[in-house]
Amino acid sequence: MQIKHNIEVTLFNPQIPQNTGNIGRLCVNTGIRLNLILPIGFSLEEKYIRRSGLDYWKFLDLTVYENWGQFVKDKNRNTLFFLSTKGKINFWECNFAAPNNSTPTQLIFGSETFGLTTEIYSDFSDRLFTIPMFGEHSRSYNLANSVSIVLFEAIRQIIYN
Is residue 86 part of a domain? Predict the structure, then answer.
């Protein structure tokens, strides 16, 4: 049985094909659409993305956007949730439910190398969340791990509450 959640994962300018492949596999296994915002740091035809996504990649519900403007133009601001080390609000304090059931919740993650743009940080500072880090030498989590952590919290809130 295929379950489609009213959640989408969006990667803003991803740079590492193995992360995107792993996230694609996660999306297939959870019934979630994956959005990629160009430019990306690799070809979608590369063996690295195919290897990490395994045979799941052909089942992925994937949308590729040419740029940030194309992605955001038809989105409801209240459905956008940005995850970043620059966020001040813990993602556990976030209510991921979209304002209505017809508009998917958007979980947006920045590039592994530079995050999101200064403009996005400024325009959406009230929609910026973080995953807490407790290690003495913490800088950031792996992107695929971050998506997993936040996606399952969003699924828990939206589907199981």
Answer: yes
Which pLDDT belongs to residue 43?
A: 83
Q: Average of pLDDT values for 102-115?
A: 92
Cis peptide before 17 (omega within 30 of 0): no
Cβ-count burial 134-149 (b if 16+ within 10 Å, e if not): eeeeeeeeebbebbbe
- Using DSSP's 3-state secondary structure scheme, residue 104 falls into coil
CA 95 from centroid of its chain's CA atoms: 16
Residue 22 domain-assigned (yes or no): yes
How many domains would you assign to the chain? 1
Is the Cβ–Cβ distance between 91 and 130 less than 8 Å? yes
Tens digits of residue pLDDT in 24-40:
999 999 999 999 999 99
What CATH number corresponds to the domain at position 156? 3.40.1280.10
Structural domain harbouring 152: 7-160
2, part of any domain: no
Q: Round the average pLDDT of the chain to a whole number and report it.
A: 88
Q: Is 53 left (phi over 0), alpha (psi -120 to 50) or beta?
A: alpha
Q: How far is CA 29 from CA 76, 79, 125, in A?
A: 26, 22, 31
